[in-house]
């Protein structure tokens, strides 16, 4: 059974940091790109960052580049995203997904974890 388990969300003040983790199982982790997406109320889902596992090659949206850092632990089938200098506009439900390439297609999705940044 394919599973992507996102965790690490929470409530933080602007300027603070959080670290999200995505634990993957049920598929060949090394063959995929793992991406983080977010969706705020009333807004479309947007891609935040991704990493091609076999190459440890990261990709970042302009809105988070320089603040967020994505990394993978291939031994643990886990992808983490360190989120620094958080802004209220980063508030959203964050999802991790597995697919091919920075822009997908993404075929496996996990449940979301809420990130709330207070001003």
Task: Please provide a written account of the structure.
This protein has 119 residues and is mostly beta strands. It contains no helices and eleven strands. Strands 2, 4, 5, 6, 9, 10 and 11 form a seven-stranded mixed β-sheet that branches. A four-stranded antiparallel β-sheet has the order 1-3-8-7, with no helix packed on it. Strand 4 and strand 5 form a beta hairpin. It is globular, with a radius of gyration of 13 Å.
In short:
The chain has strands at residues 3-7, 10-13, 18-25, 33-39, 46-52, 57-60, 68-73, 78-83, 92-99, 106-109, 113-118. 0% of the residues lie in helices and 55% in strands.
Record keyword descriptors for this entry.
11 strands, single chain, four-stranded antiparallel β-sheet, 119 residues, globular, mainly beta
List the topology elements.
Layout: E1 3-7, E2 10-13, E3 18-25, E4 33-39, E5 46-52, E6 57-60, E7 68-73, E8 78-83, E9 92-99, E10 106-109, E11 113-118
Parallel strand pairs: 2-11
Antiparallel strand pairs: 1-3, 3-8, 4-5, 4-9, 5-6, 7-8, 9-10, 9-11
Could you give the count of β-strands? 11
- Tell me, rounded to a whole number, the average pLDDT: 96
Number of helices: 0
Shape: globular
Rounded to an integer, what's the Rg over CA atoms?
Answer: 13 Å
Taking the sheet with the most strands, its summary is: 7 strands, mixed
């Amino acid at each position: 059974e394919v599973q992507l388990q996102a965790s690490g969300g929470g409530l933080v003040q602007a300027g603070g940091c959080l670290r999200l983790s995505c634990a993957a199982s049920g598929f060949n982790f090394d063959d995929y790109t793992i991406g983080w997406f977010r969706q705020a109320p009333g807004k479309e889902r947007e891609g935040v960052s991704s990493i091609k596992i076999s190459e440890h090659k990261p990709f970042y949206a302009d809105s988070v580049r320089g603040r967020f850092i994505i990394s993978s632990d291939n031994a643990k089938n886990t992808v983490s995203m360190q989120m620094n200098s958080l802004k209220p506009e980063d508030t959203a439900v964050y999802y991790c997904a597995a697919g091919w390439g920075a822009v997908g297609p993404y075929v496996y999705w996990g449940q979301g974890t809420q990130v709330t940044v207070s001003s």
